[in-house]
């Protein structure tokens, strides 16, 4: 059986167009075809929010999200169960984040000295309460931050989170409970102080 291919177009960060060949799965195969554009429309915002809670940086979150969709375009056709697309995307994003952190540990970034770069402000969050919660969330340890943000911000089930972070469900429940307690403590300390 010979595979059919489709050309997909992507925009690089610098705005140039890049094309990529991806396989087309026929209707008789166990994997239904999935429109890339509708997949991006459905999952870009949740993936970006999750990436932002991990990185605490707008540009890194954008890069991680785009990298996740690039990996989907290259390897997503291999997914057999269409119902697991969301879990696959979140798992891929988390793995890319961990890999980027390992690279930063090995090759730390050097600050630019003597450069007058313009300050670019990220978009303003209108609700200050949400801003305070996200700020406190960013101070949680990584495992707790991941579990709490996936559960409360992305509304994933314990089972989906367990698959994404590759730990037992009980560990996910424990991390969420401890993360909530630490989050409450951080917010109480900030409110009192």
Q: Which term fits the overall shape? A: globular
Low-pLDDT regions: 22-32, 117-128
Q: How many β strands by DSSP?
A: 2
In angstroms, what is the radius of gyration? 19 Å
Distance between the termini: 68 Å
Class per helix and strand makeup: mainly alpha
Percent in helix: 55-70%
The topology string of helices and strands comes to: EEHHHHHHH
Keywords:
193 residues, two-stranded antiparallel sheet, 8% strand, mainly alpha
What is this structure's SSE topology?
Elements: E1 4-11, E2 17-24, H1 36-55, H2 58-75, H3 85-106, H4 128-138, H5 142-153, H6 158-165, H7 169-192
Antiparallel strand pairs: 1-2
Helix pairs in contact: 1-2, 1-3, 1-5, 2-3, 3-6, 5-7, 6-7
